[in-house]
Amino acid sequence: MASDAPPSDALPPVPLQFIASPRNAAALARLAAQARDDLERINLPPPAWMLPAESATAEAPVLDVLIAGAGMCGQTAAYALRREGITHVRVVDQAARGEEGPWGTYARMLTLRSPKHLGGPELGVPSLSFRAWYEAQHGAGDGSADGSTPGWQALHKIGRVDWRDYLLWVRDTVGLPVENGVALRSVSQAEDGRLLAIELEHPQGRRETVRARQLVLALGRDGSGAPRWPAFPSLRRDDPLAAARVFHSADAIDFAAWEGRHIAVLGAGASAFDNAACALEAGAAGVTLFARRTELPQVNKSKAASSHGFLRGFEGLDDARKWRVYTYIFDEQVPPPWETVRRCDAHDAFELRLGSPWDDVAADADGVSVTLPDGSSERFDAVIFGTGFDVDLLDRPEIAAFAAQIDTWARHVSATEAEHHPEPARFPYLGPGFELRSLEPAGAQARTLARMRLFNWGATMSHGALAGDIPGLAIGATRLAQAIARDLFVEDADRHWERLQAHDEPELAATRWYVPPGGAE
What we know:
Elements: H1 25-41, E1 62-68, H2 72-83, E2 89-93, H3 130-138, H4 160-174, E3 179-180, E4 183-190, E5 195-201, E6 207-217, E7 225-227, H5 240-245, E8 246-248, E9 262-266, H6 270-281, E10 286-290, H7 308-313, H8 319-332, H9 338-345, E11 350-353, E12 360-364, E13 367-371, E14 377-380, E15 382-385, E16 389-391, H10 415-420, H11 422-426, H12 444-449, E17 452-454, H13 460-463, H14 473-491, H15 493-502
Parallel strand pairs: 1-2, 1-6, 2-3, 6-17, 8-15, 9-10, 9-15, 10-11
Antiparallel strand pairs: 4-5, 5-6, 7-16, 12-13, 13-14
């Protein structure tokens, strides 16, 4: 740490943080009823308007949209589609209810990173907002009825599990059916690119192939790649010794099993500090966090990219400006939240080693050896990689049949830039409605890819942070739903023209001026 850092007792106190607040089921039921009344008052959802797919039959139906993933992004996308009058939609998630997304699984922070006042999943309906959900149970002021949980004004940040439970409440309140335990396995072309053939796997291994006109890939933070697993000479992911002692921060980790042990964490971001804190709070004898950087990032540049103007306008920038913005943000890196750093610093058993990358990791039956650049080696009982996620659609088995043909940012910048920024270069180069684009812009495969829309972190280089970060979620989901509605309407334009001509509701039937069909000229 910097030598001029202030002493701990001179630092501001850390506000009260908690993962979950007490539930008030009766209050939430009343709020849900109010929210449904509010939706009815503004005529949401509107009447369904889609025509059945031309090739649909009772024996072989065709979905308008299948959404793979029912976490924050997938759920909000489904709600946004319903608000556009698109109802022939299925939402599937391989996780159990409540385990969609990271909130109840590998996310290990106490609270969300975002400020508490930001909205998103409610899509502008006040009674569906997190604030309404929280105030209904704990009040709007500094205290609550139970005397222990802070009211809205005194709340510092949103508890992680509170956010999960709020998302489930929104889902239930607006009536979004989610099929849990159902995984997307593969996608293939159907009917010369006019439909998608989507293979789903149900519990007990049952397979189902469904046809859909559009597919939304809302598979989470790793849904456009995979957890970033650093390569070391002595480390094999299929080594059972490593599997028992070497973890990624996205893995299920039984921290209690490491009580009294020494843990090493690699990384300087939020997830690295979160996992270090969990190990410390579970009673680890020591946790050492190693970071390549000589100092922690100090400024979260992405906060300057979260205004409505930025979030709405970024997609309209030319490629050079888009590339400039996000390669700069990625290079600057995001600092861990100050509350998370203090969570670790509160433990005497925590050590931060800056400027200390690793050269090798080797697991054996008794522990893990970490080799440092000076050739020295240190022993730990287990290590955790807090190294985030890669974006590389070649890693996604669901779309393996198309991955090599998906356009990426590497083709839209110079070879020098792509070499200098290899991760941004792997991001998919998306269209204005989040659709995947083909290396070959014509043909059935291009039409098929255009029916697949990536609504997760992989959309960032093309659209900004609209599909994963809470500040941009409402803008992103609305843009996605409107793009799907537009494309489906255009595709059926001639059939809608026929519907228009066939429309024969007589407006003047209740007047003396009514002329029945075939009446007087």
